[in-house]
User: Which sequence fits this backbone?
């Protein structure tokens, strides 16, 4: 609903849509490492709780304001909220299970739950937005997110994690040094960081461009209903794909093949949308790209999680998230410039080329 709200209700231009994503990522970039260090030294659980509260507040505020600058601010707060969740959830479940094979399966099932839960959310919030307009629907969704954070407080205990003793800055520096050493010394981790920089950098820009492109080529139905329907189909297809690979998620080469195939599929969808003559074929291209990009993120998260130790896990995931945010800033700024100087279609073609480059960066072996 945010995409529809920014395009239809707020009337933002293509360059403004992408620049909002860049600013969102800039805020997240600044606070990502401190948030990861808090999760590794203070608490995984409370990182998630504060994340939900901030995210709910940002969603609620977005539905109440209009204009480029106010929306820029609310989306930056939204980006900040991601910091506190980034890696903390994966680190928490890894602590509780203490079994890499079981963690991989749970992370895939969690991604499935997110996708299938998205269907319920899109149908419910989409129908609500259709009845009362996107702005008020987003306000109610933000309130629900705040309640979810309070639910985590009362429902889920943190059993295995132990806060690090000593002064925060001293222990945090030690954790950061160990996490950074892992990234520098492992060619696999470096390749994953570089691929994430490109693939997730493109994902942020694509999420803001495809609603505009569909409107430009003649979306002949209500945008709220159509975007909600696309979201439902994306989620169902993604959940089905994860169900197919779940049993083989720890098999040799599965994670690499998954990362490569999803990059290539996303590239094909992005380029297909650039050349789509009407909204039907354009929507099919969106389904391919937007369905593949979350799967790529899931494969990358599981792959890098297998390379980390418990004491630095959230911080390593924060470093990976920083690569994502840097990619959204650098790739997003470049794509915004192309959209401003040329067309949205040209920006989509540039996005497809970056996704193919990400696929080529991934190593042939996991070692």
Assistant:
């Amino acid at each position: 609903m945010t995409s529809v709200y920014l395009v239809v209700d707020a009337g933002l231009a293509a360059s403004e849509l992408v620049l909002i994503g860049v600013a969102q990522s800039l805020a997240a970039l600044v606070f990502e490492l401190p948030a990861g260090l808090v999760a590794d030294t203070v608490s995984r659980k409370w990182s998630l709780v504060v994340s939900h509260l901030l995210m709910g507040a940002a969603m609620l505020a977005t539905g109440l304001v209009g204009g480029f600058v106010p929306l820029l601010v609310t989306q930056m707060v939204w980006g900040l909220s991601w910091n506190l969740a980034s890696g903390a959830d994966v680190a928490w479940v890894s602590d509780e299970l203490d079994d890499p094979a079981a963690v991989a399966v749970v992370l895939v099932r969690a991604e499935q739950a997110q996708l299938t839960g998205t269907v319920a959310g899109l149908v419910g919030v989409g129908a609500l937005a259709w009845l009362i307009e996107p702005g008020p629907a987003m306000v109610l969704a933000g309130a629900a997110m705040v309640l979810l954070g309070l639910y985590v407080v009362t429902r889920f205990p943190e059993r295995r994690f132990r806060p690090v003793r000593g002064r925060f800055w001293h222990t945090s520096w030690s954790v950061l040094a160990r996490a950074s050493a892992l990234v520098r010394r492992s060619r696999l981790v470096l390749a994953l960081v570089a691929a994430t920089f490109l693939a997730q950098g493109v994902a942020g820009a694509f999420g803001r461009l495809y609603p505009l492109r569909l409107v430009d080529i003649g979306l002949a139905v209500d945008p709220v209903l159509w975007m909600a329907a696309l979201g439902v189909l994306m989620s169902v297809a993604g959940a089905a794909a994860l169900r197919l690979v779940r049993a083989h998620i720890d098999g040799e080469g599965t994670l690499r093949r998954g990362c490569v195939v999803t990059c290539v599929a996303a590239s094909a969808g992005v380029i297909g949308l650039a050349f789509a003559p009407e909204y039907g074929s354009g929507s099919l291209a969106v389904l391919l790209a937007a369905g593949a990009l979350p799967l790529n993120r899931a494969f990358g998260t599981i792959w890098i999680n297998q390379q980390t130790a418990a004491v630095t896990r959230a911080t390593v995931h924060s470093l990976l998230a920083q690569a994502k945010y840097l990619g959204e800033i650098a790739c997003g700024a470049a794509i915004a410039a192309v959209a401003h100087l040329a067309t949205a279609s040209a920006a989509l073609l540039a996005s497809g080329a970056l996704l193919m480059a990400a696929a080529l960066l991934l190593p042939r072996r996991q070692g």
Q: What stands out?
A: The two ends are 41 Å apart (CA to CA).
